[in-house]
Design brief:
Number of strands: 0
Order of helices and strands: HHHHHHH
Largest sheet: none
Distance between the termini: 9 Å
Radius of gyration: 18 Å
Strand content: under 5%
Amino acid sequence: FYEYTYFRPGKDYPRNYPGEMLPRLRKDPAYVEELEMVHGLACQAAQMFRQISGTPGCDKKLADRYRYEAEHFAVMCGDALALRQMDQLTQTFNETGDPALLKEIAMVARKQKEVRLSHIADLENVKEPYLIPSHSRIQSASMQYFADIEKYITETPAAALQLDFADMRHAASQRFQWLR
C-alpha cells in the first residue's frame, strides 16, 4: 500500500493505486510466484496462530494479534493477485468478447472486497484502539477499490466499459479518493 500511495519524486500525486503495480505483475512471473508463495505461507502462519490461540495457558490476545498480522500479509498479497487475475480475465474478454468474463471479473472484485471487509472487522477486535483509525483507513482504501470495480462492471453497459486495470481512476468513487 505505502509503496504505491505515498509521495515519491517523479510519480504523479495522488498516486495511481493499485494500478501502478500492474506492469510488474504483468511482466515479472518471478514476482507473481513470490506473491503466491508469501500468500500461502501467510495463510499457514495464520492457521498456526489460530491453533495456538486455542491452547490452554496461551496468551490468546497475543496469538490473535499474530494471526491477524499473518492474515494481513495474505490479504495484501491477495489484493495484488486479484488485480492480476482481473487483468488477465480482461485480456481474454478483449480477445473473445465473452460477457461471462465480465461477471467473473466482478466476482473476483466482490470476493476480494469481502475478504477486506472481514479483515477490517477483525482489525477492530484485535488491534490496539489507538491503531484502529489509521489501519482501518488503509484497509478501507483497498476494500473500496474492489467495491468500485464490482459496481463499475455490474452497473456499466458492456459496450461502455473501459477496462484497463493499470489505470481505473475513471471508475473510482469519491469515497476511494478520500481514503487514499
